[in-house]
Design brief:
It is a single chain. By secondary structure, this protein is of the alpha/beta class. It has three domains: 182 residues, Methylesterase CheB, C-terminal domain (Rossmann fold, 3-Layer(aba) Sandwich); 40 residues, no CATH class; 68 residues. It contains ten helices and 13 strands. It is elongated, with a radius of gyration of 24 Å. The two termini are 36 Å apart.
């Protein structure tokens, strides 16, 4: 059952909030005779084990479910779950690649690296599925699969517990199918036997895939993808390059961090708030120290300290006012 021929397919699935329920419902429609491997990225925190999801899938899915191991062969009828704090990608046409590469869209594992690697390795034989979740990780990856001639399936937003990810994908990809999860099993069984036209893999996708796999990480490679912009990477402080335009705008640094415009805005918002809280603490500590010192002062020295205490209070009030404003994004801007 090992992949070793040009007719083989790979199915890649990306999900976030609400993913456990969605994955259980989808994979129970497939059995161990399914003629392709299924690779899954579910957003989970770095300190989570993923055991709850894996145990649930083993109980309900007909596929043989396991945690992905670096270098392990991909087998048809098997489901491979990305380990926490690691990216899962297609290494070549028959092996898994599990790495500690840079976060993409604030996540590791992230959906885009998996989808992109499947697109450049399998081309028209890749099948990508976007399920429930916040924000738009996976959209760029699904675009990559479509550009390489592969098949795209998006959960009907009305069927999703958290419709952001499906909606964002549909805004940029003319999906082959937008259906409820209950209909995906039969569609997959048809697609694995579908013969699509083979088309060349775009050069920019090859470059991005190599960056994510840490095969390539230099300035000329990123410069070839887009235009340098006056923003810094929230992950490492490096320079960012803008890739694409309009709804498809993304940003990437040469070390591998990548962001959609929405995620970059959410990350900047979070960093600003963190910085403001640190500034508030420092000004309050300064005021408290000045107040303590003033207790033993007299005359002109005391008046100077009192002025500095008043100035500190002005800064404290201003920072509190900023922190109390409502420009901190919506729930869908925040991590899950």
């Amino acid at each position: 059952m090992k992949i070793q021929n040009q007719l083989a397919r790979v199915v890649v699935i990306g999900t976030s909030a609400g993913g456990l329920k969605a994955l259980m419902e989808l994979t129970k429609q497939l059995g161990d005779d399914f003629p392709a491997p299924v690779l899954v990225v579910q957003h989970i925190s770095a300190d989570a084990s993923g055991d709850v999801l894996l145990d649930a899938l083993r109980k309900t899915s007909g596929l043989k479910c396991s945690r992905a191991l670096n270098g392990a062969p991909m087998l048809a009828g098997h489901l491979y779950l990305a380990p926490s704090d690691h990216h899962l990608m297609v290494g070549d046409t028959d092996t898994l690649l599990v790495t500690k590469g840079a976060q993409e869209n604030r996540w590791r594992p992230a959906i885009d690296p998996l989808f992109r690697s499947a697109a450049v390795t399998f081309g028209n034989r890749a099948i990508g599925i976007i399920l429930t979740g916040y924000l738009d990780d996976g959209t760029a990856g699904l675009v990559a699969i479509s550009r390489c001639g592969g098949s795209s399936i998006v959960q009907d937003p009305d069927d999703a517990d958290y419709p952001d990810m499906p909606k964002n994908a549909l805004n940029q990809v003319k999906a082959d199918y937008c259906v409820p999860i209950a209909e995906m099993g039969d569609i997959l069984k048809t697609l694995v036997n579908d013969n699509r036209e083979k088309i060349p893999i775009p050069v920019d996708l090859l470059i991005e895939s190599k960056i994510a796999k840490r095969v390539l990480s230099d300035l000329p490679a990123v410069k070839a993808l887009g235009k340098q912009v006056p923003f810094n990477c929230p992950g490492c402080g490096g320079i960012l390059w803008k890739i694409g335009s309009g709804k498809a705008t993304r940003y990437r640094c040469h070390t591998g961090h990548a962001y959609t415009a929405k995620v970059l805005l959410a990350e900047q918002t979070m960093k600003i708030e963190e910085t403001m809280w640190v500034a508030l603490r420092m000004f309050e500590e300064r005021k408290n120290l000045l107040t303590t010192m003033a207790a033993d002062q007299h005359g002109a020295t005391l008046r100077t300290s009192e002025e500095r205490i008043e100035n500190s209070q002005v800064h404290i009030d201003r920072i509190k006012s900023i922190l109390l404003t409502d420009d901190k994004g919506t729930k869908s801007d925040m991590p899950v």
